[in-house]
């Protein structure tokens, strides 16, 4: 809050609304650390947390934060798919990606999905604050340590729908592909997505047919290569 003097000389208080932030990371210790730092900073407040991708989307739709700090390697529904859904449903919510991965392909996919910033998890908190200030002003931010090669690569080749392989799949089929790559059986996938086993199996068959890949090992390789999942999130 900041005091202000009115025309008649009376002092009045101006209430400055804090930027609302949702934390989405599958590691509790990471969320705890970021929350502590954010809540010690004026003008920022954490309104919710999520430990997996579907929870991140659900929390965003319920809480409508101004910013989501989004781990790229979330289980169940990865950061790229989360960003794509949030960007479609809540285009005013700014997406700040956090990752240990500096590979330009991950950065490109996150920006294509609607992210406004991409930070490495080993960055200083001061950099995160500056990134938050930038995205609130409608700007883009990339960690300085990866900005050069990443932006060069991104500007040369921006494909809105991502890779040709994944562009053949529906959003639900991409979800099923990620879950298959993460070792889920069809019954588990059905439970995760709240659909019947028959529907989950249909998605499984359709994505295999579209990709022309008919074994889990090769599907997993594709999911890893395309950034749908990681060996270590």
User: Could you give me the name of the CATH homologous superfamily of the largest domain?
Assistant: Response regulator
> Shape from CA axes?
globular
Order of strands across the main sheet? 4-3-5-6-7-8
Termini separation comes to: 39 Å
The number of strands is 8
> What quaternary form is this?
single chain
Give a short account of the largest sheet: 6 strands, parallel
Q: Name the helix and strand elements from N-terminus to C-terminus, one letter apiece.
A: EEEHEHEHEHEHEHHHHHH
Give the CATH level 1 class of the largest domain: Alpha Beta
The helicity comes to: 40-55%
- Helix vs. strand class: alpha/beta
Strand content: 15-25%
User: If classified by CATH, what would the architecture of the largest domain be?
Assistant: 3-Layer(aba) Sandwich
Compute the number of helices: 11
Number of domains: 2
CATH topology of the largest domain, anyone? Rossmann fold
* Sequence stretches where pLDDT stays below 50 over 5 or more residues: 1-9, 11-15, 158-162
Rg over CA atoms, rounded to whole Å, is: 20 Å
The whole-number mean of residue pLDDT values reads 84
Please tell me about this protein's structure:
By secondary structure, the chain is of the alpha/beta class. The model is unreliable at 1-9, 11-15 and 158-162 (pLDDT under 50). The strands form two sheets. Strands 4-3-5-6-7-8 form a six-stranded parallel sheet, sandwiched between helices. A two-stranded antiparallel ribbon has the order 1-2. It folds into two domains: 12-156, Response regulator (Rossmann fold, 3-Layer(aba) Sandwich), CATH 3.40.50; 164-225, Arc Repressor Mutant, subunit A (Orthogonal Bundle). It has eleven helices and eight strands. A hairpin with a 5-residue loop joins strand 1 and strand 2 (11-14).
